């Protein structure tokens, strides 16, 4: 029955496409209802005929390269805002090579001239679709600082030059591709499309913008990790199924006119009409096993709830037939409270184990989002990372350096996802909180691949990590609990007792990596979750003894409980415990090593007093920031909702809900950054003024106990605040990089 109803895996049943709209709706409902079962293996599809043409050395970027491969056309053309680097750290390479493995001919249009449709015709007309992505970064984050100043460089462009991509690249590229070939399906994806899949606050225009699908006028949006969705969609298009009929794929979004009659709609578009009781529960508390769910106002008999798992269809609520209506674009644009409410409801539906479809009105149409994709298995992730990448930039770039590739060329990614739940971070919205792990054997094979085929390799693996270095093979102890949990973070306010924190497998991986012939050293450069690390002193010993290259970066982000509670980060005591271990094991290893902590200025919930206390902590501990960047509100992040609305979506949202202090004005943002760079004479006039206003003149003076001196060196204090200094890099994630002074004060 399931096979008959699911034409995606029935290439020999073309008649199914002729059964009409009614069948499409029924199939749509059925497929989403059963999709919590084991997803089809990513590599189980019958390959497209073009697999007979073999593997390309690099995916072609010109018609001449296509001619050499014997191609008369591309089946899929990927348009990207990044330079094409055929390496598994670059999204266009992963998707391109994966589709190639499925038998499709894939071409790349990299950093096209977006002012002309002609540049989108350089590879000819694709037989299946255009795949549009801004690249590895959101284009606005790539192009502008948190203070909305244009960046002077672009790490994903040959030579590092700026201005090779437009603002909101996904929208612009999609519009030009439509002009180039009006009837070719357009699918948008990547992190920019993911973070703009519903109406969202846009920091750079300071307004709420429509979902990317609406402005891009694309046929389909793929959010999150795109492998499952893009493979299924490509095969169905290749069999002649119209893209307008592909409405049953997890991890996709599209435009609709109305909700089909077969669906039960939960109206969460108004604060006073939350819909069923279940949708009104705290989304950050796990759904208790054995609870009672009753549709509100329907007089139904209570039904015992059954834990939702990846392998069982829920009996107490048919999520395959349920859609949650968010406040419309027009509502969230006009009402900050409804925006915060929409953010809260949206994040409630991000666990692939229990998420329901979402719908959000935009004028007379609506954006429909299917539930998130099922995470890849270890075997699938292994195969994705072991596709035949050349592991280098396209030869057409010649000797031009691509800074982003230079940084990762000797690194190996071992996992995806993060269950930290930091409110300012976009990893959860894109990759999810369920960790997807590669196998140890696959990782070791890639290390050998780096050793044997990456030019310039000298024996040092620069990183063995991912979004968080030490979450490899960490997961909930109970799959049923994991699939039914609605908590945003598994480690805040404390590490969940259901979380497995055993670092033993990771220790074994590190030891095995060091034993690979020809490998002299393996470093860990990815961010570390130190509150997890302290649960395993043996891991900290292993890390500090063998895998730190003098400095290790970690991210406490702040010292004060107010901002930390809005970030969902642990208290500074966890940092102190980790530092004690770090210092102890460094001393035992006979090494002089330093922690490099990162901090964020001007995060929602931060007061001037919080920043003053952080500055005093920095001085006591002998830290002087090398670079400072303030909080950057990215679309969909919970902290961005706090910034825009002044409300806290981590708690129940209402007209009388908790208000969050927000740092908006340019002067106050400069002040918060100045506190972090308290040692810079350029900041002393602003700090003196603030300390006087705060009644803390006792911190102005020339002694060791003072934060800033009373005198002003000649020639200082006149530099425009916030000017970027040459040679000072910006910390990832909007944080602040610290340089130890080598002494305490």
Main β-sheet, in a few words?
10 strands, mixed
- Shape from CA axes? globular
Tally of strands: 24
What is the CA-based Rg, rounded? Answer: 26 Å
Number of domains: 5
At CATH level 2, the architecture of the largest domain is: 3-Layer(aba) Sandwich
Polypeptide structure, described:
There is one protein chain. This protein has 745 residues and is α/β, with parallel strands linked by helices. The protein folds into 5 domains: 1-31, no CATH class; 48-253 and 367-390, Rossmann fold (3-Layer(aba) Sandwich); 264-346, no CATH class; 410-546 and 560-581, Transcription Regulator spoIIAA, CATH 3.30.750; 600-745, no CATH class. The protein has 25 helices and 24 strands. A 10-stranded mixed β-sheet has the order 2-1-3-4-7-8-14-13-12-9, sandwiched between helices. A two-stranded antiparallel sheet has the order 5-6. The model is unreliable at 1-37, 273-317 and 719-745 (pLDDT under 50).
């Amino acid at each position: 029955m399931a096979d008959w109803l699911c034409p995606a895996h029935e290439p020999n049943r073309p008649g199914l496409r002729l059964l009409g709209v009614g069948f499409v709706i029924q199939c749509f409902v059925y497929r989403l209802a059963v999709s919590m079962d084991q997803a089809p293996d990513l590599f189980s599809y019958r390959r497209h005929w073009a697999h007979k043409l073999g593997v390309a050395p690099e995916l072609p970027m010109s018609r001449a390269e296509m001619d050499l491969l014997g191609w008369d056309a591309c089946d899929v053309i990927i348009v990207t805002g990044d330079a094409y680097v055929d390496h598994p750290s670059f999204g266009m390479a992963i998707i391109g090579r994966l589709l190639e493995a499925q038998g499709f001919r894939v071409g790349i249009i990299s950093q096209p001239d977006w002012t002309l449709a002609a540049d989108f015709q350089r590879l000819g007309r694709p037989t299946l679709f255009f795949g549009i992505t801004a690249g590895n970064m959101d284009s606005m984050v790539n192009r502008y600082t948190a203070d909305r100043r244009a960046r002077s460089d672009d790490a994903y462009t040959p030579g590092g030059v700026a201005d090779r991509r437009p603002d909101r690249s996904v929208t612009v590229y999609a519009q030009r591709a439509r002009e180039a070939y009006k009837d070719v399906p357009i699918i948008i994806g990547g992190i920019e499309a993911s973070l703009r899949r519903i109406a969202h606050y846009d920091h750079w225009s300071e307004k709420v913008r429509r979902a990317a699908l609406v402005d891009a006028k694309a046929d389909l949006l793929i959010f999150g990790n795109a492998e499952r969705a893009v493979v299924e969609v490509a095969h169905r298009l290749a069999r002649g199924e119209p893209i307008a009929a592909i409405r049953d794929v997890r991890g996709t979004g599209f435009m609709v006119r109305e909700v089909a009659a077969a669906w039960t709609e939960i109206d969460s578009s108004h604060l006073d009409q939350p819909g069923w009781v279940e949708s009104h529960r705290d989304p950050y508390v796990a759904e208790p096993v054995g609870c009672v769910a009753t549709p509100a106002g329907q007089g139904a008999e209570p039904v015992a709830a059954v834990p939702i798992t990846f392998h069982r269809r829920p009996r107490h609520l048919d999520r395959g037939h349920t859609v949650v209506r968010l406040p419309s674009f027009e509502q969230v644009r006009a009402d900050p409270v409804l925006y915060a409410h929409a953010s809260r409801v949206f994040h409630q539906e991000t666990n692939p184990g229990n998420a329901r479809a979402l719908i959000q009105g935009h004028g007379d149409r609506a954006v429909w989002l299917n539930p998130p994709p099922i995470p890849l298995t270890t075997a699938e992730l292994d195969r994705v990372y072991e596709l035949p990448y050349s592991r280098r930039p396209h030869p057409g770039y010649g000797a031009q350096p691509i800074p982003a590739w230079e940084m990762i060329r000797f690194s190996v990614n071992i996992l995806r996802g993060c269950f930290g739940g930091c409110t300012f971070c976009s990893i959860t919205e894109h990759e999810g909180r369920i960790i997807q792990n590669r196998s140890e054997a696959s990782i070791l094979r890639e290390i050998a691949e780096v050793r044997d085929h990456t030019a310039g390799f000298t024996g040092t693996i620069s990183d063995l990590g991912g979004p968080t270095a030490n979450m490899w093979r960490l997961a909930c102890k109970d799959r049923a609990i994991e699939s039914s949990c609605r908590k945003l973070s598994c480690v805040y306010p404390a590490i969940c007792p259901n979380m497995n924190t055993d670092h033993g497998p990771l220790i074994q991986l590190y030891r095995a990596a060091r034993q690979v012939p020809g490998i002299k050293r393996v470093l860990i450069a990815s961010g570390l979750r130190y509150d997890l690390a302290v649960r395993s002193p043996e891991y900290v010993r292993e890390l500090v003894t063998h895998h730190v290259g003098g400095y290790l970066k970690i991210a406490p982000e702040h010292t004060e409980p107010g901002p930390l509670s809005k970030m969902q980060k642990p208290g500074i005591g966890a940092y102190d415990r980790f530092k004690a271990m770090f210092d102890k094991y460094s001393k035992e290893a006979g090494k002089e090593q330093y922690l490099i902590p990162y901090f964020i200025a001007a995060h929602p919930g931060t007061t001037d007093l919080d920043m003053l206390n952080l500055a005093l902590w920095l001085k006591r501990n002998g830290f002087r920031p090398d670079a400072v960047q303030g909080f950057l509100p990215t679309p969909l992040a919970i902290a961005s909702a706090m910034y825009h609305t002044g409300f806290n979506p981590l708690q129940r949202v209402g007209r009388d809900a908790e208000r969050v202090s927000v740092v908006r004005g340019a002067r106050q943002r400069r002040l918060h950054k100045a506190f972090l760079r308290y040692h810079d004479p350029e900041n002393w006039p602003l700090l003196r003024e603030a300390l006087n206003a705060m009644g803390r003149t006792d911190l102005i003076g020339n002694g060791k106990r003072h934060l800033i001196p009373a005198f002003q060196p000649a020639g200082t204090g006149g530099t425009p605040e916030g000017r970027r200094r040459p040679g000072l890099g910006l910390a990832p994630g909007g944080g602040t990089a610290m340089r130890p002074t080598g002494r305490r004060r």
